[in-house]
Design goal:
Strand content: 25-35%
Number of helices: 6
Strand order of the largest sheet: 1-2-3-4-5-6-8-7
Number of domains: 1
CATH class: Alpha Beta
Distance between the termini: 9 Å
Protein name: GNAT family N-acetyltransferase
Structural class: alpha+beta
Largest sheet: 8 strands, mixed
GO molecular function: acyltransferase activity, transferring groups other than amino-acyl groups
InterPro entries: Acyl_CoA_acyltransferase, GNAT_dom, N-acetyltransferase
Oligomer: single chain
Order of helices and strands: EEHHHEEEHEHEEH
Keywords: Transferase
Amino acid sequence: MFVRTERLTLRRFLPADAERFAAYRSDPDVAHYQGWEAPVPLADAQETVERFAGGDPEAPGWFQYAVDLDGVLIGDLGLNLHENLMQAELGFTLATEYQGMGYASEAVHGLLEHLFVERELHRISAEADARNTASARLLERVGFTREGLRLSNSWFKGEWTDDLLFGYLRDDYLNRSRPTPAPSA
């Protein structure tokens, strides 16, 4: 299963991705607002990548898409499909050296196109630590609407943090101007 964009492929994880996965998830700047601690040992990365590789993108629960640029793993997108198979929660991680080049926006756009057009999901939601302004800007840039702020809501890495809530409805996505998708393989 692949989702292609102009420059990227969203694909299933492969065992060969473990070393690169461990490298970018071990970056303290990447891990700062994420639910894991850096560094990520290679053995842990191998187990995680193996678990990701065995996931089912159409089953309820989390599925992790590998973000591939010309055969190089540069990040991942997490999608938590609701049991009703009509809504999901989105998360994203991108290696530091690939940030600021439009890759994260392109990957999220590609997945949204797949989810809203091909799979006809009704709603995608996302949350971000309120201090993570880059993630909030990315979500708004790709079309998400900021729906709320939960003050001091999450106990995260030893402190209470505020959560920004975002949502995107299929009807809103279909009614806005979208780029022409790249042909799928």
